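Progress against Task 2.4 (sequence-to-structure conversion) is shown through the following example record, which the project officer requested during the mid-term review.
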Amino acid sequence: MSNSLRFRALRELKLGIAIKILGQVLVWFSTLYTVRLLTPDDYGLLSMSFVLITFSGFISEMGLGASIIQARELRSESVSAIFGWVLLTNFALAATFWLGASSIGILFDEPKIVPLIQALTFTLPFRALSVLPAAHLIRDLRIKDLEFITIVANISSGVLTLVLAFKGYGVWALVLGQIVLVAIRCGLLLKAAPTRVFPSIRISHALENLKFGGWKALGTVSWEFVDRIDYFILSILMKKADVGVYSVAIRFASLPLDKVGGLIQSVGLASFSKVQDKPEVISKNVLRATQLAAIIAFPVFAGMSLISYEVVILVFGDKWMAAAAPMALICLVQPFRLLHNILVPAVDGIGKPAVNAWVSVAAAIGFAVGFFCVHGFT
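Structure tokens generated for the chain above:
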């Protein structure tokens, strides 16, 4: 990796983290008050409603955003075809979830989630329209612009959610906050990097992108299966209050990583893609990054695990006491997730998404086997 590229990537990463931290301080105030105003039932209903829609979002994007970032050269015909297929897939999924909301409610034995799911389907078209501008910003290493847009959307959503929670809207405060978040982010992305192509569905114009995107989508979906299937299983087996406790525990245990993990992957994929013909340079920089991440992450998350009980009582109140134990355990695995966020873009950047895909598939199989083995002994 050339010195100029390394300097630019590090500068964008530092600026992105600075913007994210500054904005997150403001977001946290609204989030903490919102958690105190709402109940575990409210967060449980949101998790039940959002689990399949969130998972489908990774399928609908089909890895095509990443293929734009990784491509050596971009043709307008390819971008047009990518745009068309992403729009088509997301609108089809939105219609499917709208019509199938009642069936999902029956599956989870919770009729209250039916209108929530139907409302959340409106997030899918906005996500589709965000794919191209977000990919172009990352490809051009305009990370600070992307993070500024994300923070503005998060703050706007957080304030609205807090106001609605204060007025007694319950779970609808969370749902409407999610819709506003993706809508504002979509609008700002389109303003920062306008989509200047018309959608097309000529698959022949995007075969290389679809090949890369297909492997990327398989890897992402398999990994998200590992990351999200717990919500799906718990939504079926447990009460919504228990799901809410678990969702808050995992949300706040993962908070430090969630706020920088995506940023690391974005900068990493864009940077490694620009030197994809120099694997020895990539190996050297990956080693440096993993060493630095391990030195920071392991003690930080170990400390979080040790004080999880005190944090839950102090920050969230007594009604969330049950979240302390799962939060402590979840903190212990977060350093490994951070290393994962470094290795994945490096492998994708050199044009080998199939490697990540098969690793994720193996992890998904291992998770499924492990869950049923443990469940059989309990």
